[in-house]
């Protein structure tokens, strides 16, 4: 029978119940589905049968997330682009005639500056989906580079019309 063993870091707890694995640590809690059986001996976890590569990467991502946490920084580049936060909602002003209101998931914390804001969470998949959703409202322009950009993202701007 194939098995896979993992050593849990200090301060991380892992529980398995009815096909769901719950990993908790200092930075939060991550829950994901798994078809493997989980046995625990001290701080060593044994999965039966062996995890597929997909579940193995999800498990290691979850452990890293609850120990260190994940952060994504987004920059607003453009005239009049702003962001604000009120009562669990993120309000984006991206040059449209209306503001865009997004509900912030409970697992994500948002810190704001004027044109830079960062998203932090223990769940990397949820964090990446939320950042992509925000970015989809105003992708970077190919001529001026204005829009919602990831931190340190370089936009190759096209050359304008030649006379």
Automatic annotation (TrEMBL):
Any one GO CC term of the record: ribosome
UniProt keywords, alphabetically: Mitochondrion, Ribonucleoprotein, Ribosomal protein
InterPro entries the UniProt entry points to: Ribosomal_uL6-like, Ribosomal_uL6-like_a/b-dom_sf, Ribosomal_uL6_a/b-dom, Ribosomal_uL6_bac-type
Domain of life according to the entry: Eukaryota
GO biological process, one term: translation
Domain spans labelled Large ribosomal subunit protein uL6 alpha-beta: 78-150
Single Gene Ontology MF annotation: rRNA binding
Family classification: Belongs to the universal ribosomal protein uL6 family.
Protein name in the entry: Ribosomal protein L6
């Amino acid at each position: 029978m194939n098995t896979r063993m993992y050593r849990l870091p200090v301060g991380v707890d892992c529980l398995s119940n009815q096909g769901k694995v719950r990993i908790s640590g200092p930075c939060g809690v991550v829950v994901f589905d798994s078809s493997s059986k989980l046995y625990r001996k001290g701080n060593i976890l044994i999965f039966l049968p062996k995890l597929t590569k997909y579940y193995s990467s999800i498990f290691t991502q979850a452990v890293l997330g609850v120990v260190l946490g994940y952060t994504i920084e987004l920059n607003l580049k453009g005239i009049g682009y702003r962001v604000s936060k009120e009562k669990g909602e993120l309000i984006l002003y991206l040059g449209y005639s209306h503001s865009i209101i997004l509900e912030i998931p409970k697992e994500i914390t948002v810190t704001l500056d004027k044109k830079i804001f960062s998203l932090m969470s223990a769940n990397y998949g949820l964090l990446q989906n939320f950042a992509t959703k925000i970015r989809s409202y105003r992708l970077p322009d190919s001529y001026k580079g204005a829009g919602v950009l990831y931190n340190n993202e370089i936009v190759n701007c096209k050359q304008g019309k030649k006379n």
